[in-house]
Amino acid sequence: MKEKELRRNLAVFPIGSVMKLTDLTARQIRYYEDQGLIKPERNEGNRRMYSLNDMDRLLEIKDYITEGLNIAAIKRKYAEREAKAKRVISEKDVRRALHNEILKQGRFTTSTSQFSNPRF
């Protein structure tokens, strides 16, 4: 993972800061957590700590609500996004496995001796 992404995933913001930056109430933020839309980390004192990525998601949820989507529609949108991401990874893994299997079979390997004595 790149440095930038590591920093964006670092949970350092308490809920008060998140409220100011997103213009959401603590109740709204906790509700989105209860609905499984965000998953903030907890510190040793069991306080919620949010990352920049969490705040991005909260702002995205806020935009979806403004556009008229309800929580169920937002959940579907995120589920579809996750399924698509998994499917892309799965297809990539399948291709890699198929490629490795073909190489194991040796069907497509070429011998240099075939080309060392061309008969022209």
Outline the structure in words.
The protein is mainly α and 120 residues long. Helices cover 66% and strands 6% of the residues. It has helices at 3-9, 15-22, 26-34, 52-66, 71-105, 112-116, and strands spanning 13-14, 41-42, 48-50. The model has no long low-confidence stretch (mean pLDDT 87).
Task: Chart the SSEs and their pairings.
Layout: H1 3-9, E1 13-14, H2 15-22, H3 26-34, E2 41-42, E3 48-50, H4 52-66, H5 71-105, H6 112-116
Antiparallel strand pairs: 1-3, 2-3
Separation of the first and last Cα atoms: 53 Å
Number of helices: 6
Inertia-based shape = elongated
Element-by-element helix/strand order: HEHHEEHHH
Would you tell me the overall average pLDDT?
87
* Gyration radius from CA atoms, angstroms: 24 Å
State the low-pLDDT regions, or none. Answer: none
Give the biggest sheet. Answer: 3 strands, antiparallel
Share of β-strand residues: 5-15%
Binned, the helix content reads 55-70%
Largest sheet: spatial strand order: 1-3-2
Q: Helices and strands: which structural class? A: mainly alpha
Number of strands: 3
